[in-house]
Amino acid sequence: SGTYNNCVRYTSGRAYCWGLHAGNTAFSQGMLTASGGAYGHRGAPAQVLQPAGTALEGVEQVVMGNNRACVRLTGGVVRCWGYGVAMGAVSGLPAVTQLSATETNFCALGEDRRVYCWDGQPRASSAPALTAVTLSMGAVEVATGASFTCARLADNTVQCWGTGTSGQLGNGASVSSTTPVTVRGLTDAASLTAGQNFACARRTDGTVACWGLNSDGQLGDNSVTNRNAPVAVAGLTSVTVVRAGLRHACAVRVDGTLLCWGDNNQAQLGDNTTTDRRTPVAVMGPLKVIWAPLAA
Q1: Across the strands, what pairs with 48?
Q2: Distance CA 72, CA 145 (A)
Q3: SS3 for 26?
Q4: 232-258 confidence digits (pLDDT tens)
Q5: How many CB atoms lie within 10 A of CB 221?
Q6: Of residues 51, 44, 168, 174, the one with CA closest to residue 105
Q7: Rounded-to-integer distance, Cα 48 and Cα 58, Å
Q8: Which DSSP state fits 295?
Q9: Model pTM?
């Protein structure tokens, strides 16, 4: 999802987008061509087209920022487009196995297990300035926040870099760092996710730990105190998937139950209220989630 729009990958390997579009954005690309178009909205999914007007094929993953989008294609090529910029390949990347994006922060995990990031402006003809991040060992997953990034390494530790004033780097200090720092006390991370200014890791024992900004209870530790090192999400066990939103997070348990916590001002926690929750609450309804992640 983007700020005011969404894109999905169909099993056919094509991408479709809907919502706000302006000029050459991800959303006009599906109904117009890369030559541009008028400001407006698209109320139903429209197919993403290449600049020549033909369908974009072989899409393995699509990520979105603020009026920007990138896709990872079969073979690991990355193509991006956005407001005022036609679709084009991001040069300088190795074959890519994963993409992660927020409003202004795009990162890619290469087959070489290095992380490459750029400023979120998906320039097509002039490639964005890539930053190759030096980690202590090869990465297996990357998660981007608003102005920070975290990577899960091959030994299941996590390193983060960028803005850290809310504790979102997780190293026990609330300061920023341009170089990766190790998240304190986390040696068993099985997966990683990042919100606006916080991050969470699913641990190998099925519990979840979060760190960073906690203004709306998004760390799930029954407080609104920022944490500069991981704290356990209260009462949460047997987790198979955890995903962070802007200032909330949700987790799926082995039995298919779905629980969420944090900011709830738009009823995003699904508990039929608009009350923020400092600990996980069950999403209402006869709901059982079956999670089948796409292969890389």
Answers
A1: none
A2: 19
A3: helix
A4: 999 999 999 999 999 999 999 999 999
A5: 21
A6: 168
A7: 12
A8: P
A9: 0.87
